[in-house]
Specification:
With 173 residues, this protein is an alpha+beta fold. It has a 6-stranded mixed beta sheet with strand order 1-2-3-4-6-5. Helix 1 runs antiparallel to helix 2. The longest helix has 16 residues. The model has no long low-confidence stretch (mean pLDDT 93).
């Protein structure tokens, strides 16, 4: 997806998170997704979406984490599928497609912060912050997850990464 889809992306994320987490969270994640969508460059910020009859029904973001060493690590967040289309495998399909695209770009590792029972379905496993730290201190470290995209073990990186500016707000911990 590209920057021209910013409004659609914001509306989807606002709707999805308002429906599941309440209006305040919906507004928060809607604003975050809008900010990310405004800077989609398919290099540092990548967005994928799925449509049904010209309506955006699901979308995901991958953003680059920067380390001092030359390694490509992307963070998956946020993820949204409209409530009417949930439990149909759309989220898993989007994530698997995104991971496949990252592999084509020689990305080494994908990380995310979320529900281990959901993300384990697409290959994510618990990730100790002794291996790769999250960009910000986490309020629920058990939700820090990762997967190697090279077939090799995830390398240990002893430094906190720099993330895209949109995630620098502590409210997203």
């Amino acid at each position: 997806m590209d920057k021209s889809k910013q409004k659609e992306v914001e509306e989807l994320f606002t709707y999805v998170f308002s429906s599941s987490e309440g209006e305040k969270e919906g507004k928060l994640i809607g604003t975050l997704s809008s900010q990310l969508a405004s800077r989609i460059d398919n290099n540092e910020i990548i967005c994928f979406g799925v449509y049904e009859k010209e309506t955006l029904t699901g979308s995901i973001f991958f953003t680059r984490l920067q380390f001092s060493r030359p390694i490509k690590v992307f963070m998956l967040a946020p993820v949204a599928v409209s409530p009417e289309h949930q439990r149909k495998g759309i989220g898993q399909l989007l994530i698997n497609h995104g991971l496949s695209e990252l592999k084509k770009r020689s990305v080494n590792v994908a990380v995310t912060y979320g529900d281990p029972s959901f993300y384990s379905k697409v290959g994510f496993e618990a990730l100790s912050e002794n291996v790769i730290q999250a960009p910000l201190k986490l309020s629920m470290p058990f939700g820090w997850l990762g997967q190697s995209l090279t077939g090799e073990p995830i390398p240990t990186i002893i430094e906190r990464p720099v993330c895209v500016k949109e995630f620098n707000d502590p409210v997203y911990r």
